[in-house]
Amino acid sequence: MSEKATRAEQELTAEDVVAWLAAHPDFLVRRPDLVALIAPPERELGDQVADFQQALIRRLKRTVDEQQALSRELIDTSRDNLSITSQVHEAIIRLLEANSFEQMIQIVTTDFAVVLDVDVVTLCIETREQDGFTLRMRGVHLVSPGTVDSLFRGHSASVRLRAQVSGDPEIYGGAAPLVQSDALVKLSISPATPPAVLAFASRHADRYHPGQATELLSFTGRVVERIVRLWLELPD
User: Fold this and answer.
1) Model-level pTM?
2) What confidence tens digit (pLDDT) does each residue in 163-184 have?
3) Which of 25, 69, 153, 234 could join 190 in a cystine, given CB atoms 3.0 to 4.6 angstroms apart?
């Protein structure tokens, strides 16, 4: 900025502002956001006389500020929801592109964590020693019978969100110390398979918490159920 322009700004007076506004009477119509920045004039009404007009103006300004804050919050929430929806769509597309059952499981337990921006994703399946069932794949954990019922005891929904938790080694293995919050999705793959849980976990204590919407998590769980069922040719 030139020295001349800087000096012109420093020499700007109230009269200059008045003259400019007079020459541009529609300025505040085009910039209504600036009205909230202007302090209304005080009126002298005498002792013990309340100025209801000033009180009403202040109240209206507070209302406008609150509405603007709410609008910004709604916009931010909408953007977050759109971003999460896009992430879920990307995760499902990768799942559909799997060329084998093993690759599909790897996508769930590895790719999902990257795409959905979480720290850990595991698939937990109930089993008993006498079943002789083994599935040695990264991110797949065999848990004791009754674990799923225990995790969802008192919760009728198929998704449970938990904040400020300590990770369970049975569910998260060596990553358990990292877990501070998680989302558990109950899977009903087939009458021919034991209960299972798809677990999403974060190192942030408030990433998941009760009260959050669970529709996308539920949708992801239902897709995983059907994909597993198709690969293993299991009955519905």
Assistant:
1) 0.67
2) 999 999 999 999 999 999 999 9
3) 234
Three-state DSSP string of 110-179? HHHHHHCCCCEEEEEEECCHHHCCCCCCCCEEEECCCHHHHHCCCCCCCEEEECCCCCCHHHHHHHHHHC
How far, in Å, CA of 220 to CA of 91, rounded? 9
Q: Are 202 and 118 in contact (CB under 8 A)?
A: yes
Cβ-proximal residues to 160 (8 Å cutoff; 6+ apart), any chain: 151, 152, 183, 184, 186
Domains of the chain from N-terminus onward: 1-38 (no CATH), 73-232 (3.30.450.40)
Question: Helix (H, G, I), strand (E, B), or coil: what is residue 31?
Answer: coil
For residues 90 and 171, what is the distance between their CA atoms, to the nearest angstrom?
25
Q: How far is it, in rounded angstroms, from Cα 28 to Cα 47?
A: 34
Residue 208 contacts residue 182 (beta carbons within 8 Å) = yes
